Amino acid sequence: MKIAANRGYLAGNCLGMFKLTDEVAFTVARSSGPWLWSSDGRRYADYVMGAGPMVLGHAHPNVVSAITEQATRGTHYFLVHERAQELAAKICRLVPCAELVRFCSDGSEANFYALRLARAFTRRTKVLKFDGGFHGHSDYGQQKRRAESCCNDQRPVAESAGIPPEISETVVLATYNDIERTRLIVEPVAHEIAAIIVEPVQRALMPAPGFLEGLRELADSIGALLVFDEVVTGFRLALGGAQEHFGVTPDLCALGKILGGGTPLAAVAGRADILELAISGRRKDGRTAMVSGTLNGNPLGCAAGLATLAVVEDLGVPALLKKAGEAVAVGLHEIAHRLSIPLQTIGPPAAQQVVFTERSIDSVAALAAAPRAALDHFATEMTRRGVFFGPTKLYVSIAHTDEVHSLFFEQAEGALRAVRDQGLLG
What number is the average pLDDT over the span 338-349? Predict the structure, then answer.
């Protein structure tokens, strides 16, 4: 009765945008490795992994030990501490663009601060982003193309209520992977663009050959900063993130998810001459940017991040995630083929997305045209069968063994049959 009564105090009985359907919803009691246990004792194989941070699995002993030890030394200081200094140094060693770091609490903040720094540095106001890219909850990140847009109308509109329409006037939208069209869109407002912000892998869309290089050249040619949103790709595609993997170095990047090892920690990192604008007490030239917060660089988060990145580096975790993700993709494709179900996985194996179509997915429009109802039903059916599976990304960890994958495949066959039998494949 106590659990049921408590459901009334959380708005929507969820923590944000994601919520399981009522028929399969459960409350988490604990987790370990690749498993979640509900408050009524059911066990779930977890292929969401906290939406990506838990690459070592839940409750990894190194991370638990680091947090426990730090907790005995204090959970918050509001001052520089050893763990923050050590983690900042590690970031600057691993991430190509990182010369200085400023910590914050989540990836949305890191993206927001990166854009603020870009505006302060360039003394410009507009930001170029790509339609369908997700950069968090800030007013600038929550911008999309108008439903009535055509090729001559690129004006954005806010995705969320509560955002002044004036904010939309500071955002320019382009199409991911179309560098020529992006150049044409930028040309009339090039002198106003402070930053080009992009997910190097936009959701699950891989960059076309030359696209990221083209953005680097475009930013340089117009005097704007290139910002990589590496909240998902950071430390996942390579130790140095997507910028190392693809060989394109931005001016700034936003880091999160893996960085905090499952705690609320993120960072904006990049060129020293840009990050120095966040230093209070610098000369008064109108360019000092406020990048601060009570819990920035929280010692528990920094301890968890250091422990996580130590394992990531020591074991070569990006390669292990790639191998695990490829195994899942191969097995899922084999089942779908056997059942005559059109299915593919897109994106990097470590953070891929299931799509119910055999058509090429090379754009936001193509992805939007795929049967979403089928994906949602598949996720529900998997969760019903004891595999927690989200409809956006399939995340793996080094704790996902062949035994766990076998359970995934066993339940996926029944879930896919249910999708097919519901007639949701278009």
Answer: 95
| Sequence-distant (≥ 6) Cβ neighbours of residue 339 within 8 angstroms | 413, 416, 417, 420
426 lies in some domain: no
- Residue matched to tokens 């949103």: 229
| Same domain as 249, residue 147 | yes
Q: Is 353 helix (H, G, I), strand (E, B) or coil?
A: strand
Q: Flag whether pLDDT at 282 surpasses 50.
A: yes
Burial, 22: exposed, middle or buried (Cβ in 10 Å; 0-12, 13-18, 19+)? exposed
Least confident of 253-257, 278-282, 376-380: 278-282
Instruction: Determine how many CB atoms are found less than 10 A away from the CB of residue 1.
Output: 5
Domain count along the chain = 2
What's the rounded Cα separation, in Å, for the pair 312 and 94? 11
Within 13 Å and on the Cβ side, how many CA atoms surround 362?
A: 7
The answer on 164 and 86 residing in a single domain is: yes
Residue-wise pLDDT tens digits, 225-278: 999 999 999 999 999 999 999 999 999 999 999 999 999 999 999 999 999 999
Residues 136 and 284 in one domain: yes
Cβ proximity of 318 and 239 under 8 Å: yes
User: Residues near 365 by Cβ (< 8 Å), separated by ≥ 6?
Assistant: none
**For residue 224, which phi and psi values (nearest 5 degrees)?**
-100, 165
Q: State the angle between helix axes of 299-315 and 317-338 in degrees (0 to 180), rounded to the nearest 10.
A: 70
> Is the CB of residue 348 less than 8 Å from the CB of residue 207?
no
Structural domain for 174, as ranges: 74-315
- pTM beyond 0.70, yes or no: yes
CA atoms within 13 A on the CB side of 196: 31
Q: What CATH number should be reported for the domain holding residue 102?
A: 3.40.640.10
CA distance 340 to 342: 7
